[in-house]
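Table 4 source record.
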Amino acid sequence: MLLQQLVNGLTLGAIYSLIALGYTLVYGILMLINFAHSEVLMVGAFVGLGVQLFFPPSLTSGPLGLALVFTLAMAAAGALNVVVERLAYRPLRNISRLAPLISAIGVSIILQNAVFLWVSNQSQTFPDIMKMRSFQFAGADISSLQIVILFTALGLMAALHFFIQKTRVGKAMRACADDMEAAELMGIDTKRIVAVTFLVGGALGGAAGALNGMYYGSIKYNLGFLPGMKAFTAAVLGGIGNIQGAVLGGFILGLLEVAVAGYLPNGAEWKDVIAFVVLICVLLARPSGILGEKIGEKV
């Protein structure tokens, strides 16, 4: 039972971690909570569904189909996030911190209702991309879907770590996160770096949306709200703006949610509540999060 809950928690935590990375990348550079990120991952899920509906079955099944779904879902979500930054955030960047936040909420509502009106207000079945099998290990049922989700998420996290730490663009992103004005004085095109940040964050959200659809087997126009809020909690828990913290917070929250659902009386009814209880406790006890650092305000 314990191993089963551990596997379930790691699978769920991997999805939360990918979403949380999108929040923390943007916040680390712009100090902006991109509340439209939850709808970006929803769009990524619908793009993944569209790929399976409109492409021939020979291209949407097996490993090739999996790669195609993820590639197009990530590309569409990343491009959408760049457009959102350009139209909704960039014109408001130097006005106040509140204006982009309100704009983010407005974009979230627009995207959610656009899918509601143009696609459907009903849940859509997310077809199986690969034939899934179950394995017995130490009394736990582990599905090949859980293995795919976990290793896909870990692979994307490793790729992000390499990109941030080893590439010129990644170093420029770290410089902008440290001091945007100084980075611009050193010749870094900060507008391009911000666009790349939104592209990468949106792509991770699109991948998380596709994984979420695969895991639960259905998607809906408002599917991004609850996972988005939980992932935001995970980012705060780990230390928002800290990439390692977002990953850690996502896995902790996934394990905690599964533990509540599996071990507490009526736990399934409380599993969604626990994320917001954690958020309140973290904000009260350690606002900077587990791996976050207290930084003095610049004057």
